[in-house]
Amino acid sequence: AMVDAESGLSLTIARVVQRLRGSSLHSQLERQARVSLHKPEVKLESLKEDIKDFLKTSGWEKKLQNAVYSELNVFPSPCHPAAPPEHMKEPLAYMRKAQGSWEKRILKSLNSMCTELSIPLAQKRPVSEQKELLNKWNEMGTDEPDLTLFRPVYAPKDFLEVLMNLRNPNYENGEQPSFRNHLGLIQVPLKVKDIPELKEDFSELGLNIGQLGIDDSAQVPPEFFENEHVRVGQKVLAEQDSAAAQQYVRQGCPTALRADLWALILNISNQPEDILYYEQLKSNVIQHNLLVDSLIYKDVKLTASNDDYYFVFEDYLYQVLLCFSRDTSVLEHFAYSSATPPKSYIRGKLGIEEYAVFYPPSVLSHLNSLILAVAPLCFLYHEPSKLYQMFREMYVRFFFRLHSISSHPSGIVSLCLLFETLLQTHLPQLFHHLREIGAQPLRMSFKWMVRAFSGYLATDQLLLLWDRILGYNSLEILAVLAAAVFAFRAVNLMEVTSLAAAEAVLADLSTLKVMPLLQIFLFATVT
Amino acid sequence: QLTRKNYLVKNLKRFRKQLEREAGKLEATKCDFFPKTFEMPLEYHLFVEEFRKNPGTTWIMKPVGRSQGKGIFLFRKLKDIIEWRKEKLWTFHLLFIYSPKRGKCVWFLLQDGLRTDDQKDETQVEIYVAQRYIENPYLIGGRKFDLRVYVLVTSYIPLKAWLYRDGFARFSNTRFTLNSIDDHYVHLTNVAVQKTAPDYDPEKGCKWMIQQLRQYLTAKHGADVVEVLFADMDNIFIKSLQSVQKVIISDKHCFELYGYDILIDQDLKPWLIEVNASPSLAASSQEDYELKCHLLKDTLHIVDMEGRLTGKEKRVGGFDLIWSDGPVSREGNLDTPPSESFVANSHLGCYNDRKKQLKQLFRSLCA
């Protein structure tokens, strides 16, 4: 039975109110209301109305609006009020099961590594070590611990294998195998959009609409679009309106305004309590040594230190990820994800709840992608606690969906299926050819999508792409871009005769201009 | 005259004085982009005077004739260089001759170099400069960096200078701290020195393209601030070239490609560290290789041995003409007089679509 619109709305309202009640915004609003009592405009006879007006003119109503908007963006629409919480997380039983076994597998691998190396999952640091780490906090990259024995918990291709093996037990494809079930790697019948639907969803990327990434190029006089767009952006920031900002960035952010616009959309304002929270996480890192820390060190060294542009931010990456691996508030998002965090205990305190350390599994399984997700943010945010919060918010809104098995339209499974469907439908010859030579397209594009293209595109192009992720509150654009890249290099791909050669054609994306590719694929290709 | 550190200092100092005389104090401050420098041994006493006025500051000692960071060290106390001096012998030659300026015979101190014991019979001299070290460099990710920018001069009188759009920022491999002035590697960002640092990884470049740096700074400080920074850099190029205009032996058929080393401090003020006459064209990465290839190609296009260009071009490939006996404006062509809304024809760190521009240029020349 479908929930009718009205009771759905009141459910949503009730949930948002429940989440905001008791938050610092709530107490600030109360305080402001009390302060307003001293103002001459506020009269006893019309108290309620006057306080409301005061909150409006002083900008507090806007802050409340932004907070509500943020909550709505993050939480999925409610299903039936009688549905159990797991269904809220993930409505499909077989997806929940697959995610559960995947997590068990990761934890098992982690535990066996601990036993092999006789290193505990977590242990308290001796005081001298704590002091040392505190002193070195800003330059952890200079450390060279011996990491040769640590191996990654699993490799990205393992995750793809798991996704490929997903099957819906209720779905019988019958005697007539449709092309979809046999040609692509993903074999679950999730609903994905087709190009007409995507054109509607991404209408602001249309040919007639100005875009940063296209209409700000050197040949186009800035009076045509750029100047006005910048002016509007400044106005949006002045008004501090989250919803307007989200709409605005669909056409791209001017470089100078991007940091503030993204923070506005994600409703991050670096309040004193946020800074305090970061400091607390930092002190957790100082006090306790987790096994996953060594994995983080190793992965950062491998990934970022060798990247031409990210190497500069090595120290920031350690700081953010070490704190992130101890951040239990991230667990909140698991209320709407299908993943359940595995628990482990600090050595010697097995079973005692205060010593339980929750490992968000994604921290373990996708270190590489996490690192690549933080690095672009280092171009925008330099204050550690703000950088941390921006990353955490991006993670709980978007990136975690790339690392867990779910049926969500922005989940990695749907993105893979969307990519394959787009390719099969609009470039059938190419798709068929690549399959024939043993180069399944998804095998090559998977790593781009799972990292949201970070580390593959030039930084300015990546930021333009992420503008749209924030603007549309969806990761579907990653699948569209992946298909667009194949379309762009179709001629060369048609000529290759091996997987290695295909990979070579697609190896270097650093010269690609993202927005023209997307526009052409969506709006200028005959469908 | 531009590329030996001591000559650069002399020429800049002289030019600054001239500018002050001709255009006033304010105009002269536009030349304050060179950290205080003293030639050794000639200006040793002047240096000591300055040193004593500012105790605790850090100075850097550089041999004028050597490149790639050789022979350079930092110091903070006079006793550090007194030891070093003792290794070299100070030799001076004094001449008592007639000075027309002063109308009488005076003693002239002929600058000489510092020679070691075994070198004292050689005619080779080694001149050093002591320069005020920039203690507050702009840091990214805790690391210090300097900029390498390419300027092509095709004529000194009249001055015609081109600025290449691409360039790079060279990062130090280690975090910046003033505590370890013995750590050569932190402070010297020349790639040549970095290559010998213990944790140097040859696979990884420690360079950013200037476009990247420009984007980073714009995101952090806003476009207006960055415009000012880049305009200040243009000022460095022009003023330094003007200061040697009269002393360089100018030949219509010669050209010089200079590699300027610029350091930005925390207040976003650019400082001129050095000008290199034969900038290293060895490549440390694919990106680097392409930049240098294109740089050379475009240099040859401008030198134009086939005589294809008209001489009125404002842009050739990745080079923009920034000075042609006067500032060059972005708008209009070379002959139009400067208007109210003058915007400089300088695009350092901007998008470089050189192939396309060259195609258009040569097509229009053929027509």
TrEMBL record, chain A:
SMART domains tied to this protein: TBC
**SUPFAM superfamilies xrefs:** Ypt/Rab-GAP domain of gyp1p (SSF47923)
Residue span of the signal peptide, if any?
none
Q: Which residues form a coiled coil?
A: none
Q: Which domain of life is it from?
A: Eukaryota
**InterPro entries cross-referenced by the UniProt entry:** Rab-GAP-TBC_dom, Rab-GAP_TBC_sf, TBC1D19
Domain Rab-GAP TBC, first and last residues per copy? 252-473
Name of the protein in question: TBC19 protein
Q: Could you tell me which species this protein originates from?
A: Nothocercus nigrocapillus
> Organism classification, top ranks?
Eukaryota, Metazoa, Chordata, Craniata, Vertebrata
Q: What gene name is listed for this protein?
A: Tbc1d19
UniProtKB/TrEMBL annotation, chain B:
Q: Which PANTHER family has this protein been placed in?
A: TUBULIN POLYGLUTAMYLASE, TUBULIN POLYGLUTAMYLASE TTLL9-RELATED
Give the source's domain of life in one word: Eukaryota
The record's SUPFAM superfamilies line, in alphabetical order, gives: Glutathione synthetase ATP-binding domain-like (SSF56059)
Q: What keywords tag this UniProt record?
A: ATP-binding, Ligase, Nucleotide-binding
* One GO-annotated biological process of the protein: microtubule cytoskeleton organization
Species this chain originates from: Nothocercus nigrocapillus
Belongs to which family?
Answer: Belongs to the tubulin--tyrosine ligase family.
- What single Pfam family name could you report for this chain, choosing any that match? TTL
Protein name per UniProt: Tubulin--tyrosine ligase-like protein 9
InterPro entries for the chain: ATP_grasp_subdomain_1 (IPR013815), TTL/TTLL_fam (IPR004344)
GO molecular function annotations of the record: ATP binding; tubulin binding; tubulin-glutamic acid ligase activity
